[in-house]
Request: fold
Amino acid sequence: MSDWEPYYIHHAQSKQVMNELDNNQRQKIQRQEQKQKLRNRINAQILDHPFTDYWDIFVLKHQHPINIALHIAGIFIFYSLLFCAWKFQNLWLLCFLPLTQLVGLIGHLLFERSYIDRQDAVFSFRASRCLGLMLWRVMLGKYGEDIEKRLEILQETSGSK
Reply:
């Protein structure tokens, strides 16, 4: 029996370690979910919402016409700088690319106070994808419908609580 005792003790200890790892992993996942929830908040009043796709959240953060126009202007300035840097063989123009982010941030500061995640403000693929999609939807004349649809969903879910 004494030969098996260390095995049982070791086995019990390893199970305890596994349970602790599971708890640590669960806590890590919960922290990540909480961080994502905070990152995806719309504004100070709307912290909880049914949206999981960032496009839906992005649309609700970009409803004011002047804010939308400033974001689109920022997109055109960004690509104009890239083109001019290539056309005039002047790489120094690329130093001004980060300033194009300020155009959109001014829109949020002056016209639409929605929560802006620091990573999205500097650069993120999800924000860049949504900016391009917003430009496309505005050019198609469909962006207003996108806003109305998300507002309806938000109102339905907040009314049912």
About this structure: The helical segments are 5-39, 54-61, 65-87, 100-110, 118-122, 125-140, 143-159. The chain has a mean pLDDT of 85. Residues 40-159 form one domain. The longest helix spans residues 5-39.
